[in-house]
Design brief:
Blueprint: H1 8-14, H2 53-65, E1 70-74, H3 77-88, E2 94-98, H4 103-112, E3 119-123, H5 128-134, E4 139-145, H6 157-167, E5 170-174, H7 179-182, E6 192-195, E7 210-214, H8 216-229, H9 235-245, H10 248-267, E8 272-276, H11 286-292, E9 299-304, H12 310-316, E10 321-322, E11 332-334, H13 346-351, E12 358-362, H14 368-380, H15 386-390
Parallel strand pairs: 2-3, 2-4, 4-5, 5-6, 10-11
Antiparallel strand pairs: 1-7, 6-7, 8-9, 9-12, 11-12
Helix pairs in contact: 2-9, 3-8, 12-14
């Protein structure tokens, strides 16, 4: 099936599905074998080679969703990030990275890259000119994340892509927060697209996976390293992920709608100090997001004012769960200073603009009225007494 001829939900539902030729079942059959014949076969299949029937079918679906030639799936988002980076970087190479990125990626660079002699530079904003100013003679890769985790910074995809091509550099993006529903970086010239498939692709908080989509040439280069590192995904999880992707378009669009409504709602509350969401017209990246995104996403962040106890607010929520991950059908929140960016020092978080009372909120698919009421009652139960504030 050619994905360009069909709508998003059709691609989610049908592209890459396996046919049950024996019993004519409606869903893809699951092939659990970890051992396949090697004589008289066209393909020598092995799970670590990413080519079992279920693995291959899922990769076709992900490539179709991201408008690329090929894709690979991994055991986690960080397996996808680390394998993709190391496939193109060697000792002496240099990569430019915004400081506003997922904490796990930040830790990969700061804790591991020095061991391999790979250099990196953090830029303090996400402007194309900042990327350009950080390029060195040994720069090989420009890495970006838009919308960024956790402050939803927006990067100009076309501008960074044009810059990279003019310098003969690769571009790589973590597209997790947007999902293929809201953003297709390949359409703007980005070379390699990475996802924590645990998030919107999985969407039900019950699997851990990663994905990479790119040209056939780039995927083949990533595969050469991936087969040796061994970060493949079990076929049962592959099957679950293929099942989840069928509803991704419906889920994410519902989450987009809830996130927009919640951001607008929070913006009007006196107890909320700041709201970060690219769908808001006063967000600095709003116009750019309008030009390169199909929706503003299900993620937002906000900071409580001084009259509200952060810890008590989180504990008082009844529907919204305090939970480590994001993008499930249920609404969740985390405090980045304690979770996703907890391994960064206070000074590093300050440099990235992440305050100690920042809340990252993942909008689910609940009725918006219920979510608003839950937040309102939690704020009411979390007010700090005036005498405490005065002291």
């Amino acid at each position: 099936m050619k994905n360009r001829k069909h709508g998003l939900n059709t691609v989610c539902t049908h592209t890459g599905e396996l046919k049950d030729e024996q019993f004519k079942g409606a869903v893809s059959p699951l092939y659990m074998s970890s051992s396949y014949a090697y004589d008289d076969v066209d393909i020598k299949r092995y799970p670590r080679y990413f080519n079992t029937p279920n693995q291959e079918a899922l990769c076709l679906k992900i490539a179709a969703l991201e408008h690329t030639e090929k894709a690979l799936i991994f055991g986690s988002g960080m397996a996808a990030v680390s394998t993709s980076m190391l496939a193109f970087l060697k000792s002496g190479d240099h990569v430019v990275v915004p400081r506003q990125i997922y904490g796990g990626t930040y830790n990969l660079l700061t804790e591991e890259f020095d061991k391999y002699g790979i250099r990196y530079s953090f830029i303090e904003d996400t402007k194309a000119e900042s990327f350009e100013n950080a390029i060195q003679e040994n720069t090989r890769l420009l890495y970006l994340e838009t919308p960024s985790n956790p402050l939803l910074y927006i990067t100009d995809l076309a501008a960074v892509s044009d810059l990279a091509k003019s310098k003969g550099l690769l571009t790589m993006i973590d597209n997790t927060f947007a999902s293929p529903v809201n953003q297709n970086p390949a359409d703007f010239g980005i070379d390699i697209i990475i996802h924590s498939a645990t998030k919107y692709m999985g969407g039900h908080s019950d699997i851990c996976a990663g994905a990479v989509a790119a040209s056939a040439e780039h995927i083949d280069q990533i595969f050469q390293l991936a087969k040796n590192l061994g970060g493949s995904l079990s076929d049962y999880t592959v099957w679950l992920l293929e099942r989840s992707l069928k509803t991704m378009g419906l889920r994410v669009r519902a989450q987009n709608e809830n996130a927009m409504a919640l951001a607008s709602f929070l913006k009007k509350l006196p107890e909320i100090a700041n709201v970060y969401y690219p769908g808001l017209k006063d967000h600095p990246g709003h116009e750019l997001a309008c030009s390169q995104m199909n929706g503003f996403g299900g993620m937002l962040s906000f900071e409580l004012g001084p009259a509200i106890s952060l810890e008590q607010f989180v504990k008082s929520l009844q529907l919204v769960k305090a939970s480590m991950s994001l993008a499930g059908v249920e609404s969740t929140l985390v405090i980045p200073a304690k979770t996703s960016h907890g391994l960064l020092s206070v000074e590093e978080r300050k440099q990235a603009g992440i305050s100690e009372n920042l809340i990252r909120f993942s909008a689910g698919i609940e009725d918006i009225k219920d979510l608003k009421e839950d937040i309102e009652q939690a704020l009411e139960h979390s007010r700090i007494k005036s005498e405490v504030l005065d002291s």
